[in-house]
Write a structure and sequence with these properties.
Elements (H helix, E strand, L loop, with lengths): L4 E4 L2 E6 L7 H4 L4 E4 L4 H13 L3 H4 L3 E3 L8 H5 L11 H15 L12 H13 L4 E2 L2 E2 L7 E2 L1 H4 L7 H13 L3 E11 L8 E6 L8 E9 L4 E4 L11 E2 L6 E2 L6 E2 L3 E5 L5 E2 L3 E6 L5 E3 L4 E10 L1 H9 L20 H17 L5 E7 L2 H8 L1 H18 L6 E4 L3 E6 L3 H23 L7 E7 L6 H12 L1
Parallel strand pairs: 2-3, 3-4
Antiparallel strand pairs: 1-2, 5-19, 6-7, 8-19, 9-17, 10-11, 10-14, 10-15, 12-13, 15-16, 17-18, 20-22, 20-23, 21-22
The chain binds zinc ion (3 copies).
């Protein structure tokens, strides 16, 4: 079906409605889009389809709404450019459309070379064309973390908001945007879900079927007991079961020093409840101290960010980024072919070259306890510790996110022992500073490469030693 075209001040707009439907490819040919429907889901879907498109000629297009929509549909308002309801809107619509087009001509085509580059570039370009310098989080019950950044959300699936935070961290590290604190939130340590059900539970059996009672301390006789001990049928009000006196004025003849809890499930009494959070997304149930905390910021475009939008991105490489993807991790095949060279070299040159392994034995338990996100960060910190010890002839392979293999050129025994001890020392520091209460059990193994005919054999031997 042919979409009706509306001309406003010599600009051509395509008018989308339930009857015309949505065909994103044809949008490119027009100066702007009008969405004429009172069907909010249709309008929101149309806007998202346009903004999610991979071509800037589509996703940067000005969009105007021909009808009013409730503010509950947050993406409608955050990702459209205004209204076109009355004739008097003509001037504004035309001038805004011209301005956005003018701005698109200033954009650089270069994309930052990172996993998040495309998403960041898209959001920054969109903001730049609207002369919008602030990236604002909004409360969003449909986002897995409870917040969304509409300009960023279009590059991610609806359950991927946690990755948006990672992408924003990356942009912040590269000084493209500047954070302004909004909120610190806690999310699930397994799936980063933000919808958590908090319960006070018994420390012994984890049941939330508990009740609390005030403890009463009677000053004259020093008796302390739950308030139910102080009531009986014979007396009105509180009455001391030990000295048999009436108990009258709090602060004068008694006080309530704390609360005593009782578990209806396992029938124990205790003074402190545990607070646990159950994730509504993945059903993971953890004590609140192990939840992952994330900061929700409002972001401002920096001058470096504006420069990058129009002149291209020149980013320094940050090795401290908390993502595997940002590091030059090598595959097992690459590692083996490098080892093959070393096996030959150790036989020909009679050099002692060692192959080392450091493995985290209880990685599953740790990941469960501290959460995948924090565990991954810990492993990367360990990765950096080893990588910093290596010389240019030595290389490091990380297997399954918990076992490190690397070759060593200098006198094997001594150097491996010194690596082990400095590794253990820094590991202890990391654990103490960041992840208290979790003990890590490590396995250190090494073999000499001149005992092996090739890299595959060396790696297999070492793997057997580890088990
Ligand atoms: Zn219990
Ligand atoms: Zn008493
Ligand atoms: Zn979860």
């Amino acid at each position: 079906m042919q979409s009706p075209v509306i001309v406003i001040d010599n600009l051509q707009f395509v008018r989308l409605s339930l009857e015309t439907g949505l065909d994103t490819t044809q949008i490119m040919a027009y100066d702007g889009v009008l969405i004429d429907s009172n069907d909010a889901p249709f309008v929101q879907n149309s806007i998202l389809s346009i903004r999610r498109h991979h071509q800037p000629e589509v996703y940067l297009k000005p969009i105007f709404l021909c009808q009013n929509h409730p503010s509950a549909f947050i993406h409608i308002h955050a990702l459209s450019d205004g209204q076109y309801i009355h004739d008097k809107d003509n001037t504004l619509v035309a001038s805004k459309t011209r301005k956005i087009f003018q701005k698109t001509l200033e954009l650089s085509e270069s994309k930052p070379n990172s996993a998040y580059g495309a998403a960041i570039k898209k959001a920054l370009d969109y903001m730049y064309c609207r002369e919008n310098r602030i990236l604002q989080p909004i409360l969003d019950p449909f986002s897995i973390i409870g917040y969304s950044f509409p300009e960023m959300s279009v590059s991610f699936e609806t359950h991927e908001e946690a990755q948006i935070l990672d992408a924003l961290d990356w942009a912040e590290k590269n000084e493209l945007i500047w954070p302004d604190f909004q909120e610190k939130i806690y999310v699930c340590n397994q799936c980063s879900g933000g919808f958590l059900s908090y319960r006070e539970v018994c420390p012994h059996c984890q049941s939330s079927h508990t009740y609390g009672e005030d403890l009463v301390h009677h000053f004259p006789c020093a008796y302390i007991g739950p308030i139910s001990d102080f009531t009986n049928e014979k007396h009105e009000g509180l009455h001391c079961p030990k000295c048999n006196k009436g108990v009258h004025h709090i602060g004068v003849d008694y006080d309530k020093p704390s609360v005593l809890y009782h578990c209806n499930n396992c029938d124990t009494k205790f003074q402190d409840l545990y607070v646990k959070a159950k994730c509504l997304n993945c059903k993971n149930d953890v004590e609140v101290q192990y939840l992952q905390s994330r900061t929700i910021n409002t972001y401002k475009l920096t001058s470096k960010g504006r420069h990058a939008i129009t002149k291209g991105f020149e980013l320094q490489n940050h090795t401290t980024d908390a993502h595997f993807i940002e590091r030059d991790l090598i595959s097992e095949d690459t590692f083996i072919s490098l080892l093959n060279q070393d096996c030959k070299r150790s036989q020909i040159e009679e050099r002692s070259i060692g192959l080392m392994a450091i493995s985290i034995n209880n990685h599953q338990a740790i990941a469960k306890e501290m959460g995948n996100y924090r565990f991954k960060k810990l492993v990367l910190e360990l990765y950096d510790i080893i990588a910093n010890e290596l010389n240019p002839l030595e290389y490091l392979y990380l297997e399954q996110g918990h076992t490190f293999y690397f070759n060593q050129y200098l006198g094997i025994e001594d150097s491996f022992i010194s690596i082990q001890s400095s590794f253990q020392e820094r590991l202890n520091q990391l654990i103490i500073h960041n992840h208290s209460g979790i003990s890590v059990s490590m396995n250190y193994q090494n073999i000499s490469l001149n005992e092996c005919k090739d890299g595959r054999e060396a790696l297999n031997k070492l793997k057997t030693q580890l088990n």
